């Protein structure tokens, strides 16, 4: 039972496993895991048994299926036999039809072959036409390129070459033509480069010759602009001065200046643009840029060379205009040539030019000996700077050079003014200048504020100065103008102090020195000395006019100058020089008086006869003083006239006293003293008349010319006094003889003899009664000896 039961269980298990295996095979699933499990469990035989069981089961199913469809298969075979018969019949019919078709299509096949051959020919012809068209297109471009080169249209020719290279050359099927064109392209490019370089070289020559005209035009425009600005400033200054009075109505206008610098300065850069464009198209623009820069730098170096065959002053305008034109052209190239010239290259070029130009100007100016030439060259240099500043160039070093040259310029200017002033003084007759009309008066008097009153005098008008005063004033004004012109565009904005400095130098070192030299010259006579002294005073007065003119020339309004109350150092010095001139004049007059006073030795000091008239020397002195005082009265101020008169009269008084004291006069008599008294009376009469007629009496009411003769007058009065011993009385002496020195009086009294000192005279005097005068004189002599 147990065996049967175990067998049944085993069969059930196998059956279950067969069922699972069958399902896996039916579903097409992987049997790997089951096979792996069987081998791992050590029961592969069971698996094989199951597989065989499955196979047998499938075979049974196949047999059952075949049995099921056998009848249908037999029917199908029968139908296939019937179809086979029909197929044989159809084959026979097709063979017949094929034979007939071959018979009919043999002719068509021949025609087809002919057609295919025609199609092949057509294709070849089309290809030939296409190839020919490509060749013709390339050849047309070649012809077009040749024509463009012949016409000088190099940019277009390069475009054609580029088109041939990039688009047409690769489509050329003809190798020979392709090789030929490939060889020709570099030659064409090289030819175009050579042609544009030739054009550029010709342009270099042409533009260099044009640069001078360009520079002259630009500098001329700068000069015109400067003149317009100066005119505007002058009109504005005049309007400001007139507006200060509040009596003038103004009409304002707007001036519009519409001018383009580029439109005025026209020059052709086409060859340069074309050459640069050609090199850019060829990709060698750097090469051309370097070529251009080197050539222009060489041209600049050549332009900066000065020919020694021609003086620099005669060639400076052409020289500077050439440089200005060069850099105007370079600025245009920088702005319009799209990178042909770089900014740093132009800056370097400008730096080289400024360095060479300033060093060359230094050398030329060191050899220049004319201030006017110096000024003209400097003005043109400053105009060069003004013209190039508009194009963005840094002209500071040029203006700084102008400023540094001012010392040299003013040295030349002072030297020329010294020559002019010396010539003026040498040619001046030192006669009072005569003005025939109002124009002369305005030009020579009012222009320098030399008028004595605000009223216009009657003409002809005799001025208190000689022609040298207005001539020297005109020289000073010209000096101010030249100095301002030099400094105006020299890089310094406020330069009035500089002008004052050089103006003082002119007035002090040149004009004042020249006038003093003339004053102190041995050849200067009294008449000239009077006029020179008067001229110095008037030049001193004109200093304010000089300062005002200098300030206004520097752009400072007249009201500002008046408010500032500034003055020149030269004015103080002229005042001192004027006083020195007055002293020199007095000395000169006294020297001339000494010539007349030397005739005192011709006076008969021991005369026995009383004199009837004044001595000759006094007559000469009075005539001389009349001439001098009349001349001085017309020219010199009253205070100076007073000093001159007092100095002359006092000098005469001292000379007379000195004559009494002279060792050459051993003795003198009463008659000699009487003669001197007559001389003094005449001189006193002349002095009083001049003192009153000149108007000095209204100013100097206490001290007249006669008071300057006090020593000589008191001495004569003492010698003529009946009681000379009263001199010893202090009160009497203080009242009547205060100007006398007791020692001098003692020495003079020792020489005084009231009667001739002869043998018979002395004997008779002993016997005769002494006069009271002689007794009094003897008492005086004795008392003076005791007193001294």
From TrEMBL:
<feature type="domain" description="Exocyst complex component EXOC6/Sec15 N-terminal">
    <location>
        <begin position="50"/>
        <end position="219"/>
    </location>
</feature>
<dbReference type="InterPro" id="IPR042045">
    <property type="entry name" value="EXOC6/Sec15_C_dom1"/>
</dbReference>
<dbReference type="GO" id="GO:0000145">
    <property type="term" value="C:exocyst"/>
</dbReference>
<feature type="domain" description="Exocyst complex subunit EXOC6/Sec15 C-terminal">
    <location>
        <begin position="400"/>
        <end position="751"/>
    </location>
</feature>
<feature type="compositionally biased region" description="Basic and acidic residues">
    <location>
        <begin position="775"/>
        <end position="788"/>
    </location>
</feature>
<comment type="function">
    <text>Component of the exocyst complex involved in the docking of exocytic vesicles with fusion sites on the plasma membrane.</text>
</comment>
<dbReference type="InterPro" id="IPR042044">
    <property type="entry name" value="EXOC6PINT-1/Sec15/Tip20_C_dom2"/>
</dbReference>
<dbReference type="GO" id="GO:0006893">
    <property type="term" value="P:Golgi to plasma membrane transport"/>
</dbReference>
<dbReference type="InterPro" id="IPR007225">
    <property type="entry name" value="EXOC6/Sec15"/>
</dbReference>
<dbReference type="GO" id="GO:0006886">
    <property type="term" value="P:intracellular protein transport"/>
</dbReference>
<keyword id="KW-0175">Coiled coil</keyword>
<dbReference type="InterPro" id="IPR048359">
    <property type="entry name" value="EXOC6_Sec15_N"/>
</dbReference>
<feature type="region of interest" description="Disordered">
    <location>
        <begin position="758"/>
        <end position="788"/>
    </location>
</feature>
<dbReference type="GO" id="GO:0090522">
    <property type="term" value="P:vesicle tethering involved in exocytosis"/>
</dbReference>
<comment type="similarity">
    <text>Belongs to the SEC15 family.</text>
</comment>
<dbReference type="Pfam" id="PF04091">
    <property type="entry name" value="Sec15_C"/>
</dbReference>
<keyword id="KW-0813">Transport</keyword>
<dbReference type="GO" id="GO:0016020">
    <property type="term" value="C:membrane"/>
</dbReference>
<protein>
    <recommendedName>
        <fullName>Exocyst complex component</fullName>
    </recommendedName>
</protein>
<dbReference type="Pfam" id="PF20651">
    <property type="entry name" value="EXOC6_Sec15_N"/>
</dbReference>
<dbReference type="InterPro" id="IPR046361">
    <property type="entry name" value="EXOC6/Sec15_C"/>
</dbReference>
<keyword id="KW-0268">Exocytosis</keyword>
């Amino acid at each position: 039972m147990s065996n049967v039961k175990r067998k049944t269980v085993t069969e059930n298990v196998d059956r279950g496993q067969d069922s699972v295996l069958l399902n896996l095979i039916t579903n097409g699933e992987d049997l790997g895991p089951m096979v792996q499990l069987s081998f791992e469990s050590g029961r592969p035989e069971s698996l094989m048994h199951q597989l065989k069981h499955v196979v047998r089961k499938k075979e049974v199913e196949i047999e059952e299926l075949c049995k099921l469809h056998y009848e249908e298969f037999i029917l199908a075979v029968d139908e296939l036999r019937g179809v086979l018969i029909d197929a044989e019949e159809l084959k026979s019919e097709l063979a017949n039809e094929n034979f007939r078709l071959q018979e009919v299509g043999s002719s068509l096949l021949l025609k087809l072959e002919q057609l295919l051959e025609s199609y092949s020919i057509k294709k070849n012809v089309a290809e030939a036409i296409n190839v020919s068209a490509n060749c013709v297109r390339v050849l047309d471009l070649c012809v077009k390129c040749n024509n463009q080169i012949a016409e000088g249209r190099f940019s277009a020719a390069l475009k054609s070459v580029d088109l041939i290279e990039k688009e047409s050359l690769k489509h050329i099927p003809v190798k020979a033509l392709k090789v030929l064109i490939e060889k020709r392209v570099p030659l064409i490019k090289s030819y175009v480069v050579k042609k544009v370089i030739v054009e550029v070289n010709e342009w270099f020559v042409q533009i260099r010759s044009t640069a001078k005209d360009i520079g002259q035009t630009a500098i001329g425009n700068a000069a015109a602009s400067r003149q317009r600005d100066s005119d505007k400033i002058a009109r504005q200054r005049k309007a400001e001065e007139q507006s200060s009075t509040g009596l003038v109505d103004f009409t304002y206008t707007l001036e519009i200046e519409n001018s383009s610098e580029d439109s005025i300065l026209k020059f052709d850069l086409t060859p340069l643009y074309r050459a640069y464009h050609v090199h850019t198209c060829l990709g060698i623009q750097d090469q051309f840029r370097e070529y251009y820069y080197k050539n222009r730098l060489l041209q600049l170096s050549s332009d900066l060379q000065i020919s020694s065959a021609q003086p620099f002053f005669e060639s400076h305008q052409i020289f500077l205009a050439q440089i200005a034109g060069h850099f105007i052209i370079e600025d245009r190239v920088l702005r319009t040539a799209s990178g042909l010239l770089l900014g740093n290259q132009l800056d370097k070029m400008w730096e080289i030019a400024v360095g060479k130009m300033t060093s060359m100007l230094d050398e030329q100016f060191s050899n220049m000996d004319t201030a006017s030439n110096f000024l003209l060259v400097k003005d043109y240099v400053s105009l060069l700077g003004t013209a190039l500043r508009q194009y963005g160039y840094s002209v500071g070093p040029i203006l700084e050079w102008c400023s540094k040259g001012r010392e040299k310029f003013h040295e030349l200017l002072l030297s020329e003014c010294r020559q002019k002033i010396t010539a003026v003084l040498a040619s001046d007759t030192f006669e009072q200048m005569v003005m025939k009309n109002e124009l002369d008066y305005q030009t020579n008097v009012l222009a320098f504020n030399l008028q004595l009153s605000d009223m216009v005098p009657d003409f002809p008008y005799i001025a208190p100065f000689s022609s040298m005063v207005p001539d020297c004033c005109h020289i000073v004004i010209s000096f101010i103008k030249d100095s301002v012109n030099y400094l105006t565009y020299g890089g310094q904005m406020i330069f009035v102090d500089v002008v004052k400095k050089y103006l003082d130098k002119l007035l002090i070192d040149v004009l004042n020195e020249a006038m003093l030299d003339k004053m102190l010259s041995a050849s200067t006579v009294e008449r000239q000395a009077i006029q020179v002294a008067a001229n110095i005073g008037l030049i001193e007065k004109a200093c304010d006019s000089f300062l005002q003119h200098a300030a206004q020339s520097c752009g400072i309004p007249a009201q500002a100058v008046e408010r500032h109350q500034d003055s020149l150092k030269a004015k103080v010095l002229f005042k001192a020089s004027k006083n020195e001139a007055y002293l020199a004049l007095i000395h000169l007059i006294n020297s001339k008086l000494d010539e007349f006073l030397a005739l005192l030795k011709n006076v008969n000091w021991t005369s026995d006869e009383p004199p009837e008239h004044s001595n000759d020397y006094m007559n000469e002195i009075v005539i001389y003083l009349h001439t001098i005082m009349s001349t001085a009265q017309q020219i010199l101020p009253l205070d100076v006239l007073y000093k001159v008169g007092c100095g002359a009269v006092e000098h005469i008084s001292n000379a007379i006293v000195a004559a009494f004291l002279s060792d050459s006069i051993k003795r003198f008599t009463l008659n000699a003293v009487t003669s001197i008294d007559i001389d003094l009376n005449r001189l006193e009469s002349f002095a009083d008349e001049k003192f009153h007629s000149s108007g000095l009496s209204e100013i100097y009411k206490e001290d007249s010319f006669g008071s300057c003769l006090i020593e000589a007058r008191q001495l004569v009065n003492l010698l003529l006094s009946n009681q000379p011993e009263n001199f010893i009385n202090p009160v009497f002496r203080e009242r009547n003889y205060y100007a006398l020195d007791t020692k001098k009086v003692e020495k003079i009294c020792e020489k005084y003899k009231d009667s001739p000192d002869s043998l018979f005279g002395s004997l008779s005097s002993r016997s005769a009664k002494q006069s009271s005068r002689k007794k009094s004189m003897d008492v005086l002599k004795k008392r003076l000896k005791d007193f001294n």
